[in-house]
Specification:
Elements (H helix, E strand, L loop, with lengths): L1 H27 L5 H66 L3 H35 L2 H22 L6 H39 L1
Helix pairs in contact: 1-2, 2-3, 2-5, 3-4, 4-5
C-alpha cells in the first residue's frame, strides 16, 4: 500500500512538472490574445498551491500509515507483557497458594487476576476497537471515542497498580504497560494530525 502511494505521488509530481513547463512555454509564445494570456496566467498561479496541497496530502497519508503500524507493534508489546505477567507470575502464585492451602494468598492473587482482566485487558481490547473505528472512518466522533477509551485504559492500569505493592515483577509489568500506553496515545495523536493534514489538503485542492 505504501509503495502504491509512493508511485502515485511520483506520477503526480512528474505530471505536474510537465504541465508547469508546458504552461510556461505557452506563456512565452506569441499569437495569443489577451483573454488567452490571462487564462494561462491564472492557471499558472494555481499550480504551486495545488502542488503544496498535494504534498500535505502525501504527508497526511504517511502519518496515518506510520501510526497504524505503530499501533500494531505497541499492541503486540502490551499483549506480550500481559501474557508474561499471567503465565510467569500470577498463575504460578495462585497454584502455589492452592497447594499450600493459603487461602489469604489465593484471594489476593485472584483479585489481582480479576482486576487485570476487568480494568486492563478488557479496556485494552475496547481501546483497540475504538482505534480501528477511527482508523477506518477518520470521523471526529470516533476520535472522541478513542480518547475517552484511552483515558479509561490509563485509569485501569492505575487501579491495577494499587494491588501490586508486594510484587516487584508485576510492578515492572505495570511500568511497561504505562510506558506502552503513553506511546499508543502518541501514535494516536500522530494519526489524528495526519487526518487533519488530509482534510486541509482536500479543502485546498477543491478551491
Amino acid at each position: 500500500r505504501d509503495g502504491q502511494k509512493e508511485d502515485a505521488s511520483q506520477q503526480f509530481y512528474s505530471a505536474y512538472d510537465q504541465m508547469a513547463t508546458m504552461i510556461k512555454d505557452l506563456m512565452t509564445q506569441e499569437g495569443f490574445g489577451a483573454q488567452e494570456v490571462a487564462l494561462l496566467q491564472d492557471t499558472h498561479k494555481l499550480f504551486d498551491p495545488y502542488k503544496d496541497a498535494f504534498g500535505s496530502m502525501v504527508k497526511g497519508y504517511r502519518a496515518t500509515d506510520d501510526s497504524f503500524i505503530q499501533w500494531g507493534n505497541i499492541g503486540r508489546q502490551i499483549a506480550g507483557s500481559i501474557d508474561n505477567s499471567l503465565n510467569s507470575v500470577i498463575y504460578p502464585a495462585m497454584e502455589k497458594a492452592h497447594q499450600d492451602n493459603a487461602l489469604e494468598d489465593h484471594v489476593k492473587w485472584a483479585k489481582i487476576e480479576n482486576v487485570l482482566n476487568t480494568e486492563v485487558i478488557s479496556n485494552f481490547l475496547t481501546l483497540r476497537v475504538t482505534a480501528t473505528y477511527f482508523c477506518k472512518t477518520e470521523l471526529d466522533k470516533e476520535w472522541e471515542g478513542y480518547n475517552k477509551q484511552l483515558s479509561r485504559m490509563q485509569d485501569g492500569i492505575a487501579t491495577w497498580r494499587k494491588l501490586l505493592d508486594d510484587s516487584p515483577e508485576l510492578q515492572k509489568t505495570v511500568d511497561e504497560l504505562t510506558s506502552a500506553i503513553r506511546q499508543y496515545g502518541a501514535a494516536g495523536q500522530q494519526f489524528h494530525a495526519g487526518v487533519m493534514l488530509k482534510r486541509q489538503a482536500d479543502r485546498d485542492m477543491a478551491v
